[in-house]
TrEMBL record:
PROSITE patterns reported in the protein's UniProt record: KH_TYPE_1, S1
GO terms for biological process, alphabetical: DNA-templated transcription termination; transcription antitermination
Gene3D superfamilies named in the record: 3.30.300.20, Nucleic acid-binding proteins, NusA, N-terminal domain
Function of the molecule: Participates in both transcription termination and antitermination.
Principal cellular location given in the protein's record: cytoplasm
Record key words, sorted: Cytoplasm, RNA-binding, Transcription, Transcription antitermination, Transcription regulation, Transcription termination
Pfam families: KH_NusA_1st, KH_NusA_2nd, NusA_N, S1
Gene name tied to this protein: nusA
Protein name, UniProt field: Transcription termination/antitermination protein NusA
GO molecular function list: DNA-binding transcription factor activity; RNA binding
């Protein structure tokens, strides 16, 4: 390794790792001074001159001129008779500067320098990567799938840095192959064994927010504010938006003409249903909007319990609850109220709560039925077997057995 190759390696490192000039100069000087300390015991009498642009460097050793026969340390002193050979005008007490060639360090010192250099490069690279991505938390990035494992995916960014997308941060229906482009948001940056680990996410609400900024110029420009986002990744999301400009319809702008803007986001999220609603400080109206597409008859809010009783017609209950109960769960998270759904005028003393059948029907089956809004015997019997098969994970045989048990109660 000669001086030219050494500087070239740093120049290349600077170009690819974005190390600033000042840092690179400091690292180079530190590396050389560590070798000078080993060689001379000190580096205080040495000058290191580095020229990054030309790709070279110079090392000068300054020695004090002493009378002949009084040299005590040849590393820091030089005899008068030797000094005048360099420059006849020199006098005792002055300093002589001698240039040291890189090759003069010896093979062992050069190898030590190289190892020190590699170590500092790796250290700088890690620090730089940590700083870059620490500042990018919450930002969306695009990378390429490099390796697919059972619990996580290794992704490379444009500069070849390794990023991790854990299985828990992937949308359930995500499926990636090596070489495929991936978009995700930077969720967090950890240091593990002095190595930065960048964790990405496609399930975080911030990912959906960044997608809206990319697809909707009014959101990017701040004309439309996203007040809150709640998601069940891959299934459903609710986005509350607001605009301080009365001329802008925030929901219409986010959805776009014939859904042109929202469609791109939905495709990226593997067909996740996205409800965009107008934010309001009116709690009752906010709850009503959050339960879209169901049409609400009345809302009663119990503030001290942070609870809301919502009344609907029979045909709207299943819409309010939604498939798997996602609609009502997300509405509760969005509004901050625990929402209970009631059928309008549904005071049927002959109806029986499903929990009353716990001795005859397995609890997991009852949970499946409750998840689709069926919390009583009659609410189950009102739905056809075929419809229940579609809306739950239950087998036809299981559903028919449940029907027999419930029907026998009313017989």
């Amino acid at each position: 390794m000669n001086s030219l190759n050494l500087i070239e390696s740093f120049t290349e490192f600077k170009e690819f790792k974005s190390i600033d000039r000042q840092t690179m100069m400091r690292v180079l000087e530190d590396v050389f001074r560590s070798i000078l300390k080993k060689k001379y015991g000190t580096d205080e009498h040495c000058d290191v001159i580095i020229n990054i642009d030309k790709g070279d460097f110079e090392i000068w050793v300054n020695k004090e001129i002493v009378p002949d026969g009084e040299v005590e340390d040849s590393n820091t002193e030089i005899a008068y008779s030797q000094a005048v050979k360099i420059e006849p005008d020199f006098e005792v007490g002055e300093e002589v500067s001698e240039e040291i060639k890189f090759e003069d360090f010896g093979r062992r010192n050069i190898l030590s320098l190289r190892q020190n250099l590699i170590s500092r490069i790796l250290e700088l690279e890690k620090d730089q990567l940590y700083k870059i991505y620490k500042d990018r938390i919450g930002d969306i990035i695009t990378g390429e799938v490099y390796q697919v494992w059972k619990k996580e995916i290794l992704i490379l960014d444009d500069e070849g840095n390794e990023l991790i997308l854990p299985k828990s941060e992937q949308i359930p229906s995500d499926y990636f192959k090596k070489g495929e482009p991936v978009r995700a948001v930077v969720a967090k940056v950890d240091m593990r064994n002095s190595t930065p680990v960048i964790i990405l996410s496609r399930t975080a609400p911030e990912f959906l927010e960044r997608l809206f900024e990319l697809e909707v110029p009014e959101v990017f420009d701040g004309l439309i504010t996203i007040k809150k986002i709640v998601r069940v990744p891959g299934e459903r999301a609710k986005v509350a938006v607001e605009s301080y400009d009365d001329r802008i319809d925030p929901v219409g702008a986010c959805v776009g003409m014939k859904g042109s803007r929202i469609h791109g986001i939905v495709r990226e999220l593997r067909n996740e249903n996205i409800d965009v609603i107008n934010y309001t400080n009116n709690a009752a109206l906010y709850i009503q909007r959050s339960l879209s597409p169901a049409r609400i008859t009345n809302v009663e809010i119990i503030e001290e319990e942070e609870r809301a009783d919502v009344f609907l017609k029979n045909d709207q209950v299943s819409l309010a609850i939604g498939k798997g109960g996602f609609n009502i769960k997300l509405a509760s998270r969005l509004t901050g109220y625990e929402i209970d759904v009631y059928r309008e005028g549904a005071e049927d003393v002959e109806d029986v709560d499903l929990e009353e059948f716990a001795d005859e029907i397995d609890s997991w089956i009852i949970d499946e039925l409750k998840a689709i809004g069926c919390d009583s015997a009659k609410s189950v019997l009102e739905i056809k077997v075929e419809e229940l098969i579609k809306r739950t994970d239950l087998e036809e045989e299981t559903i028919r057995e449940v029907f027999k048990i419930l029907e026998s109660e009313f017989e």
